[in-house]
Design a protein that fits this description.
It holds the Pfam family DUF5753. By secondary structure, the protein is an alpha/beta fold. The protein has two domains: about 80 residues, lambda repressor-like DNA-binding domains (434 Repressor (Amino-terminal Domain)), CATH 1.10.260.40; about 190 residues, 2-Layer Sandwich (Endonuclease, Chain A), CATH 3.30.870. It contains 14 helices and seven strands.
Length: about 280
């Protein structure tokens, strides 16, 4: 993840919205601060997204700007921002092995799940050995118990029960680099590539691969999961991001469509898997 946490842009957007509210009321920052009983620097910090307003702050701001009718909408936006970002310390408080069951209800209620990954095989498509290698990296990176790795990998396999059922339908897009990044060694990767080829033939499961060297109409980016058109989830080294904002969802739907147009499927995807297998044998 480059720059700041993804929720930071949403904080700045809320600050901009509040700033426009102030301008619409023809108030200076100093006058708004006076009406709210705040120090004038608080106005600047909120408008620039460096300080999050409390719900009481939002009510006072809107009232001072004669915009009480916007309070509910602004508070709803603020609450969503608070829920957007979860750092890994908080995310893994329940333990890696228990976290694997956290989203099962979401999977069950979704009709279409779209997944893009540029660096590794998505959890739904992993073998237990590949998952164990990935969790070992996570545990060492975040100081988590290595004793939980085997259980976490085994528990991750529970989500596979949704594959091939049509509830939900899956579309996966993988960069060719996701097939090349070696997790766990040659034997683990060979098993993973075999399984990827096998799962690609399941009904209601579409696996597309964006080949290396293809002229890009859209550059590779960080992985994401789209659940219908209602929820976006992304994971980064330092934490996890999610949002239900319609404008963000619409943006990522367009991104997914652009990436899908660059992918190959079916036998052509099988050629890419075989190329990854040959590269692996050469290591």
């Amino acid at each position: 993840m480059s720059g700041s946490e993804p929720s930071e842009s949403a904080k700045r957007a809320l600050g901009t919205q509040l700033k426009e509210l102030r301008h619409g009321a023809d108030l200076t920052g100093v006058e708004l601060a006076r009406r709210c009983g705040w120090h004038k620097t608080k106005i600047s910090k909120i408008e620039h997204g460096t300080q999050s307003p409390t719900e009481a702050d939002i009510r006072m701001w809107a009232t001072a700007c004669n915009a009480e009718g916007l309070v509910s909408e602004l508070i709803a936006t603020s609450r969503e921002i608070d829920q957007m970002w979860t750092d890994y310390k908080r995310r893994h408080a329940r333990g890696m092995k228990n976290l694997q069951f956290h989203a099962m209800d979401l999977y069950a209620s979704s009709k279409l799940i779209r997944v893009y990954e540029s660096l590794f095989i998505p959890g739904f498509l992993q073998t237990v050995e590949y998952a164990q290698a990935q969790f070992t990296i996570h545990a060492r990176l975040h100081g988590l118990p290595l004793d939980d790795v085997e259980d976490a990998a085994r528990n991750r396999m529970a989500r596979k029960r949704f594959l091939g059922t049509g509830s939900p339908i899956f579309t996966f897009l993988l960069e060719a680099s996701a097939l090349a990044n070696n997790m766990g060694g040659r034997e683990v990767m060979a098993g993973q590539l075999d399984y990827l080829e096998k799962v690609s033939s399941l009904p209601y499961v579409s696996v597309g691969i964006i080949p290396d060297g293809r002229i890009r109409s859209l550059y590779p980016g960080e992985g994401f999961y789209l659940f219908d058109e209602s929820l976006l989830k992304q994971e980064f080294w330092s934490g996890a991001f999610q949002t239900s904002r319609p404008d963000t969802i619409a943006y990522f739907v367009r991104v997914f469509a652009a990436l899908r147009a660059q992918a190959v499927f079916g036998s052509a995807a099988g050629v890419e898997i075989e190329a990854a297998r040959r590269r692996l044998q050469g290591t």
